[in-house]
Amino acid sequence: MALLQLSAHFSSSSCAFFGDDDVLSSTSKTLPLLRRNVKCRCIAEPVEMMQTVYKTKVSRNENMAKLQAGYLFPEIARRREVHMLKYPEAKVISLGIGDTTEPIPEVITSAMAERSYALSTVAGYSGYGAEQGEKNLRAAIAETYYGNLGIQETDIFVSDGAKCDISRLQILFGSNVMMAVQDPSYPAYVDSSVIMGQTGPFQKDVEKYGKIEYMKCTPENGFFPDLSTVSKTDIIFFCSPNNPTGSAATREQLVRLVQFARDNGSIIVYDSAYAMYISDDCPRSIFEIPGAKEVAIEISSFSKYAGFTGVRLGWTVIPKQLVFSDGFPVAKDFNRIVCTTFNGASNIAQAGGLECLSPQGLKAMHEVVGFYKENTDIVVDTFKSLGFKVYGGRNAPYAWVHFPGRSSWDVFEEILEKAHLVTTPGSGFGPAGEGFIRVSAFGHRENVLEASKRLKELYM
Amino acid sequence: MALLQLSAHFSSSSCAFFGDDDVLSSTSKTLPLLRRNVKCRCIAEPVEMMQTVYKTKVSRNENMAKLQAGYLFPEIARRREVHMLKYPEAKVISLGIGDTTEPIPEVITSAMAERSYALSTVAGYSGYGAEQGEKNLRAAIAETYYGNLGIQETDIFVSDGAKCDISRLQILFGSNVMMAVQDPSYPAYVDSSVIMGQTGPFQKDVEKYGKIEYMKCTPENGFFPDLSTVSKTDIIFFCSPNNPTGSAATREQLVRLVQFARDNGSIIVYDSAYAMYISDDCPRSIFEIPGAKEVAIEISSFSKYAGFTGVRLGWTVIPKQLVFSDGFPVAKDFNRIVCTTFNGASNIAQAGGLECLSPQGLKAMHEVVGFYKENTDIVVDTFKSLGFKVYGGRNAPYAWVHFPGRSSWDVFEEILEKAHLVTTPGSGFGPAGEGFIRVSAFGHRENVLEASKRLKELYM
C-alpha cells in the first residue's frame, strides 16, 4: 500500500534517485489535501514534492506497544521545554531527573585527558578492550567496594552505566521470567521487563503491568516491603538506598530479603548506585549479607559519586556462586551477553574510573557526595519547615515528599508553573508513588537555596 | 538442594557472615572428595572452608543455551593466549579481530582531552546528555555522510558503537521476527538474533540456526546473494563493504536489494561501518538508493575510521519514512529503546566524534583509512603472489583468502602454529565461510610486512 505525503526534505541530488523508479507512481489512495500521482521534478533547490508513504510488512513488536506514554524522564524534559516556551524569561531550576551538576574533580578529568592524549601515541594507543572492562579497573572496584566480601576481580563486569546493565540483565533472563519490583521504583526495571516481553499488558485500573509483582513501599511499612504478602518470582529488583524514596534498607531487612530469595530460589538484582550516600550503618552492598552471593547480582555506577552521568561508567557484580536451576553459572551467560551485545565501556571513561578509586580520587568522590548531602539537608529542612512529611534524604540524594490526597503530576505542574522548579512526580515510579514527589538534591548550591526560597513562597 | 564445595576465597570478615546462619549445615549430598557438614571456622587468614553450593530455581534462558561455543572473537583471543603460553618467546602478530592499531590523530584526541578538562569547570560540565546524542554531533553526521540524501539530524541516533546498536535493534524487533543474513557475516547479527529468541536451535548438520535465512555469498555469485532463491523475511541484515569478505555491493546490486525488500515488505539493516574504505563508485550509504528510506536502517561507526574501537562511538540512521505494518514509525520505537536501555554515548567520545567531522578531522580520518588501505594492498599482494585466490581488499580492510577443501580452523591453527600469526577462520562467520580465512589489514606497517614475510616462508 502506498500513500502520498508532502516532503520538503529532498534536494536535487536525492531527487535524482527517483528518476526512473516506479516507486512514486504506484499510488492506491491518498491522504487528504494531497495531490496524487505527481511525478518527482528535479530542480536545483529543495522543494515540496510528492513522496510515497510505504509501509513495511514487519509487525510492530507487541511488547513495545504495551509501554505506557514516554519513559518518565524524557516526558519530564518535554514538559519542561513546554514550560520554558511559555515562560521564556523564567529561570527554571531542575530538582528533577537526578542529574549531577558539580564539576568532576580535576584529578579525575586529568586522568581522562591524559588517556585521551595517550591514544595519539604508539605506546599509549589501545583498540578494543576486554568487553568485561580493563583488568586493573575490575581489580580496583573489587578491592575498593568489596574488599573483604569475597568478591573477586573476575566477578566484576565494567559497563557504560547501571541503566544499560539493567537491560543487559533483562536480555540475559529472557522473556520467560517473572519479576518483582519495589513500588515505587526507578522506571527502567519495569520498562525493560515490558520490552523483553516478561509482562502482561498494562492494567489501567491499577496502573500496573500484568505478571509483575509490585512490592509496595510506603511510610506505613518503613519503605521495606511486607515479604509475607509478596508472591514468589524469578527475579527481584531491589534498590537501596532507594530511588525514588531515598530509604536505605537496614542489615536486618536485607537479611530477610536474602532469606526470602533463598527460600523461593529467586535472583535479586540489587541496585546500589547510591551506596556512597549512606550515612549510617546500613549495608553498602548486598554481599555484606550472609548467603547473598548465591542469590544476588549487584549493579552500581560512578554517575552519582563522581559526576559521571555523561561520562558513562558503571559495573555489575555477578558472583560465581550464583547459578541457574540447572547449575549453569549466571556470570557465564552474562559474559556471553556482554561479549555479544556490548563492546566495553569507553577506555577514556575507564581511565577516569580507575583514578576515582585512587586515594585522591576517593577523597574527591567523598567530597562530591558530601556536597550533595548538604544540598539534601537543605531540601529536607525546607519541606519539613513547611509542614510536609518528608522521607529519605538521610542516606540518599533524594527527598520523598508527601502531598496526601493529591495527584503527583498535579503537584509537579503546580511547582513548575508557580515556582519554575522541575521535580519528579512520584506516580511516575509506580502506583504507590502517587501523592508524592521526588526532589533531587543535585544542583548548584545557589540554585538549591533559590529553590528553597521559592518553595517557601509557594507553600508558606 | 545444597551441595558443598571447597572455597579459599573467604576472609575472616566475610566468614563472620556465616556465623549463625543455617546455610552451611543444610547439606543433602556432597561432591566427591569433599567432606560434609564441616562448620565454618573463622580465623584470621583466608582458609579453605566449606561453602554451600546453592542453586536458584530460575531457569536458564533457553535462547542462551542455543548459542554455539563462544562468541568468535573471544574464542580467537583464547586460542591466541594458549599459543602464547606454548611459545612465550614468539612475537605473535594479529591480523585477526579487525582491531585498529594506529594512534588516533592528535586533532581528535586533543578535542577529547579538552572536553575532559572542561568537565572540571562549572561552564564546561555536563551531566546526562540526550540519549540520542548531542545535537551538534547528530547534525554533523547527517551533514557529512548524508548531506544530500534527505537524512535529517533527527534521524541520527548516536551510540557507543555499531555492535551495541545491532542488539538494540534486535530488542526493538523482538522475538517474533525472522531475519536473513549474508553467509558469511559478522557474527553479532546471528548471535543477537539467537539471544532474542528469533531463531530455532542450531542444526549441527548444516551449521545453521533454524528460522534464519542464510544468504550465501561466494565467489560464484560475486559475494552478492541470488535473491531469487532467498525467502521473504522480516529483517535483512546486510553489510557492505562486507565483513568478512571485503566485497562492496554495487549500486545496481543495492537497487535490487532495496526492490527485494520493498517487494517483501522487509526492513534492511544496512551496516556501513567500512564505507570510508570504498575506492570505487559503490554506494557509501544505502540511502543513495531510491526508495531505501522506507525500507532501511543504517548502522555505522567511527571505530575503523578514527581508531575509535576502544573509545566507542557509532550511530544508527532510522528515517522517519520507515514504518511498521501498522504505520507506526520504527524510529519512534527505537527512540524508546534508546531512552530505556541506554543513556547516550560518553560525552568525551562525542567530543571526539564531532572533531572527526571537522575539516581537519576528516582529513585525518582519510589518512588513517589510507594507511590501512596500503596495508591491505600488501596483504592482498602477498597471498596473490603465493598463488592463492584472494577476494575483497579493494573496498575494505579485509582480504578473504581461499583455501579450497581445507577447514578454516585448521588453516587458522596452521598459520598460528607455524607463523605466529592470528587470522580469523572463515567458518566462524557462517557455513559459507568454510575454506576461507579473513586477514585483517589493521596493524603497524612493520608487523604487516613481517607477517607478509612469514606467510611467504610458510606457503612459498
TrEMBL record, chains A, B:
Q: Does the keyword Transferase apply?
A: yes
SUPFAM superfamilies per the UniProt record, alphabetical: PLP-dependent transferases (SSF53383)
Q: Which UniProt keywords apply?
A: Aminotransferase, Pyridoxal phosphate, Transferase
Q: Which coenzyme or cofactor does it need?
A: pyridoxal 5'-phosphate
InterPro entries named in the record:
Aminotransferase_I/II_large, DapL/ALD1, PyrdxlP-dep_Trfase, PyrdxlP-dep_Trfase_major, PyrdxlP-dep_Trfase_small
Gene Ontology MF terms: L,L-diaminopimelate aminotransferase activity; pyridoxal phosphate binding
Q: What Pfam families does the record tag this protein with? A: Aminotran_1_2
Provide the GO biological process annotations. systemic acquired resistance, salicylic acid mediated signaling pathway
Q: What domain of life is recorded for the organism?
A: Eukaryota
GO cellular component: a single term: chloroplast stroma
User: What are the residue boundaries of the Aminotransferase class I/classII large domain, all occurrences included?
Assistant: 91-454
Query: Which family does the UniProt entry place this protein in?
Result: Belongs to the class-I pyridoxal-phosphate-dependent aminotransferase family. LL-diaminopimelate aminotransferase subfamily.
Question: Which NCBIfam families does the entry mention?
Answer: DAPAT_plant
Q: What is this protein called?
A: Aminotransferase class I/classII large domain-containing protein
